[in-house]
Amino acid sequence: MIEINKYDVIIVGAGLSGCVMAERFANIKNKKVLIIEKREHIGGNCYDYIDENGILINKYGAHLFHTNDEEVWEYINKFSKWVRWEHEVKCIVDDKIIPLPINITSINMMFNLNIKNEKEMDEWLEQNKIRYDKITNGEEAVKSRFGEQIYEKIFKYYTYKQWNKYPNELNEEVLSRIPLRNNFDTRYFNDRYQVLPEKGYTNFFNQLIDNKNIDIVLNIDFETIKNNISEKKIVIYTGPIDFYFNDKNMEKLEYRSINFIIERYKNTNYYQSNSVINYPSIDIDYTRIVEYKHFLNQKSPHTTIVKEISTDKGDPYYPVLNQKNLTLYNKYKMLAEDEMKNKNIHFLGRLANYKYFNMDQAIKNSLEYFNNNFNL
After folding, report:
1. Tens digit of pLDDT for each residue in 281-322?
2. Do β-strands 234-237 and 9-12 pair in parallel, antiparallel, or remain unpaired?
3. Domain annotation covers residue 103
4. Which domain holds residue 50?
């Protein structure tokens, strides 16, 4: 039985948002913190482990840390050594392996062109993009930047496989964040800091919450202790906001999950030429193949690949951002605001805020939330 009364702060979820908040309360405010986590491990979707081939892999898909935020960069370096890693993604289009994001090399390979510089690339994009008076959905967001041909070859069916919705069924913001280069830069990110934790994300999380003021209990559902928490306690809830309000009999928000198909190959140097290769064709079930041995240039006589197939079933990973869900979320948000006022329960993070966060954004969000609400 958990002695809840001995803790000042209860944090639901051991992912980035929850663990950063736990670290802040423990170190800055010297509060006793309990983290409860329904999974059997800490780290949320960042969790990684060494597999039977001796390769460090992510259980829930590849995670590449990148940021321009100096505060976040300084913060994470307190808990881990980070190694420079400039991530590249490749994509199979018309039997060619082209680099993503779209750049000069991509266009030249796809259309047998000889664009030589940024000026020529800008001219090509200008000639091919479609103009709209107002961007209203994901399809228009893509076509207004890339044009019809690239939309059809890369984005249309990849988006459908990923979201079970075509781009015109999603809000503009879902696809407007896709990077585009007018040069030869084949890196997926152009942030100042692009890194991986030298000893993996799980090690980073262990260091993050290594504090005598922090206790963690795994394999426990919030529902089992929810009614035993005094209203005097601070509660940070990082789970799905609609799960919290199960008793309201409201419609559920939509999320996308992923099935991870692990394949291990003995006595194989590499399975593919790059760490991540995307498959936008509707004829192939999976969206991408990740070969983890590439990351950090790991050494093993064997290799491990993971094929990712998006699904509606399973753990909620990504909010489905369309108008229907955002309208429904606003109803849940009003309930959450009442819970905060009346019961001191704070909703924080990707699932609780029904918003996609990069890792650095999740950390920044938690740091700012703590400073604005508790470090006064």
Report:
1. 999 999 999 999 999 999 999 999 999 999 998 899 989 989
2. parallel
3. yes
4. 4-83+194-252+319-373
